[in-house]
Amino acid sequence: MGRSAVDLLWVWSDFATLTGFILGLRWFIDGARSPVLGFAADRIGRQRSLRFLFPFNALLLIVLSLLKTPALLVFLTFAFFIGSSAVMTLLSVHADQRGPHAVASYATAMDFGMSVGPLIAWGIARFSLPTGLIFLSGESIYGIASIIALKTFAKLIRKGGR
Predict the structure, then answer these.
(1) Crossing angle for the helix pair 100-126 and 15-44, nearest 10 degrees?
(2) Distance between CA atoms of 79 and 77, rounded to whole angstroms?
(3) Which domain holds residue 57?
(4) What pLDDT does 138 receive?
(5) Whole-angstrom distance, CA of residue 42 vs CA of residue 36
(6) For the chain, which residues score pLDDT lower than 70?
(7) pTM of this prediction?
(8) Which of the two ends of the chain, N or C, has the fewest CB atoms closer than 10 A to its terminal CB?
(9) What pLDDT is stored for residue 21 in this prediction?
(10) For helices 15-44 and 5-12, what crossing angle results, to 10°?
């Protein structure tokens, strides 16, 4: 089996540099795209957008774990960040509409994911496990969270929420 795209990126970059670049790219995308993505989701429909974006993002993570080309890895990571930025925008709107308890739960879940995610990735790299596992572990957790979120929204819609 050949080297993954993540392994190839390590050749010209260290972990901290790559992590900083990805996190910086994430904040740029969130800040620049959230209004546009929110507008698009409102036009398409929030629930419909979430039903598309959760599986789309999970599929992107699976593809990212299998890549062998660094340029494609960077491009698809950018695409994932755009999709997850749209999900974050939609989830924050849903939380805001549900009141302070929902906002607190959303913020806690976000903080938990942002703190545990890098630790999992670092552990995989640190223990010399295949780097494709970084994306597969993220996809597994993302998939479970997607199912929970979609079931929660389905219950809220049945109760008369939007």
Answers:
(1) 140
(2) 5
(3) 5-158
(4) 84
(5) 10
(6) 1-20, 22-23, 26, 29, 156-157, 159-162
(7) 0.70
(8) N
(9) 72
(10) 130
